[in-house]
Design brief:
- InterPro entries: 4Fe4S_Fe-S-bd, 4Fe4S_Fe_S_CS, Electron_Trans/Redox.
- Pfam families: Fer4_10, Fer4_5.
- Keywords: 4Fe-4S, Electron transport, Iron, Iron-sulfur, Membrane, Metal-binding, Transmembrane, Transmembrane helix, Transport.
- This is 4Fe-4S binding protein.
- The chain is mainly alpha-helical.
- It has one domain.
- Helices cover about 55% and strands about 5% of the residues.
- The chain is built from 14 helices and five strands.
- A three-stranded antiparallel β-sheet has the order 1-2-3. A two-stranded antiparallel sheet has the order 4-5.
- Strand 2 and strand 3 form a beta hairpin.
- Helix 6 packs parallel to helix 9 and helix 8 crosses helix 9.
- It starts with a helix and ends with a strand.
């Protein structure tokens, strides 16, 4: 099946995006089995929280709270086992950016800036981790979880809740609109690639034994379609375990050699 992984990923993204609006709707009619936003979500008695939000809470409060720590176990385990799939399979911001890119392609609008980062991934990672560390340092100093204020998935999910329950948006939506406008002009997932603190923090939990892309054959047609398709600008043939990779599977879908024999694929260990 052509683009098999992408089709499954689109279904997952769409489900999560709809669920983001469905949760507050259920809460309004008194169904509270599931409640919250992507900052913190309660499913029955199970609490699931954004690891970055919890880490900032520890920095601000200067106290370790066991219940808060327990709430990050599921997402952290998910990252250990499946890699940074939150970003490409579930993040509402990534979903919106891909939607914009699809519209751009259909309208035949060319990207203004074709960034090639596969030969400078180390510099990109240094920049994004430096941005994250700087934000965490300032958070600890001023005592305010500043990175929550620029968490695209957290903002989008909280705005969905406010819209459904109170029928308006707050000023935070302006930040998301600005990012999306820049994405339209520049493309290349600039926020996800260089700045997103949530994605960068989740990268810490990526391991070589977890799910990642590998080239299983020494030789291939060398068409470079995998590199051209990668939203994070890496070379999947040599860098499938890079911190930038979020296991979207686009490179696997577009690889023509996979039609004949497994050449580029997902693998554990």
């Amino acid at each position: 099946m052509k683009n098999k992984i992408t089709k499954y990923r689109r279904l997952t993204q769409t489900f999560v995006f709809i669920l983001m609006f469905l949760i507050p709707m259920l809460n309004i009619i008194g169904i509270n089995f599931i409640k919250g936003t992507f900052y913190s979500l309660d499913v029955g008695d199970i609490a699931i929280a954004d690891p970055l939000a919890i880490f900032q809470a520890f920095l601000v409060s200067k106290h370790f709270v066991l219940t808060m720590f327990v709430s990050i176990i599921i997402p952290v385990l998910l990252m250990f086992i499946l890699g940074r799939i939150w970003c490409s399979w579930m993040c509402p911001y990534h979903f919106l950016v891909e939607l914009l890119n699809s519209i751009r392609i259909k309208l035949r609008i060319k990207k203004k800036n074709k960034l090639k980062t596969y030969n400078k991934t180390n510099k990109v990672n240094i920049f994004r981790f430096s941005f994250l560390i700087s934000g965490l340092f300032i958070t600890g100093v001023v005592g305010i979880p500043l990175l929550n204020l620029i968490s695209a998935p957290g903002i989008i999910s909280s705005q969905a809740l406010v819209l459904i329950k109170f029928h308006y948006f707050t000023f935070e939506i302006v930040f998301i609109l600005i990012l999306l406008i820049i994405e339209i002009l520049l493309g290349n997932f600039f926020w996800c690639r260089y700045f997103c603190p949530t994605g960068t923090f989740l990268s810490i939990f990526r391991t070589k034994k977890g799910l990642h892309i590998v080239k299983t054959k020494e030789s291939c047609s060398n068409c470079l379609r995998c590199i051209k398709s990668c939203p994070m600008g890496i070379n999947p043939m040599t860098d499938g375990n890079n911190y930038l990779c979020h296991n979207c599977g686009k490179c696997v879908d577009v690889c023509p050699d996979n039609k004949k024999e497994d050449t580029l694929k997902f693998r554990f260990f």
